[in-house]
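If your schedule permits, I should be very grateful for your opinion on a structural question. I would ask you to consider whether the tokens describe a fold that such a sequence might reasonably adopt. Thank you for your consideration; the sequence and its tokens are set out here.
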Amino acid sequence: MALPWAMGALVLLGQAGLTGWLMRRGVSSRWARGRVGGSLLLLGAAACLALPLVDGAGAKTALLVVGFGLGGAFPTVAVTTVAELAPPARRGGALGTMNATVTTAGLIAPAVVGSLVDSHGAAGYQTAVVLSGALLLLGALAAVTLIDPARDAARLNA
């Protein structure tokens, strides 16, 4: 249970360091945040979606650690992107709204996973991981295509 969190912490620090390094070298926020963060989500999605394709507890555990470890590294991208976009007077409200929206998954996920396990038995857990992979994939595509703080800041200031 602790391995995805440990990997997520390491990836989070690495992602933050890489993003900062890229931006100090003049790489746009769109690339440094959207593409780096989206790539991590994409790799996490691939690991979750690959779960039914492998046999053995070790391989499945490794995919879970990679999938949820990489998927959990995106909050720093989200927070810094929202902070970059929101005017200082509204930054707290924007970050609070984002946090409230994101944590809603913590209310919904146990009910969904419980329902899957009730209806499919132990296979429901694998279905939940595949569903998580699909959601990570959607998030990755959204991050890569939609995150563009410079464009959004210009639109907000217009």
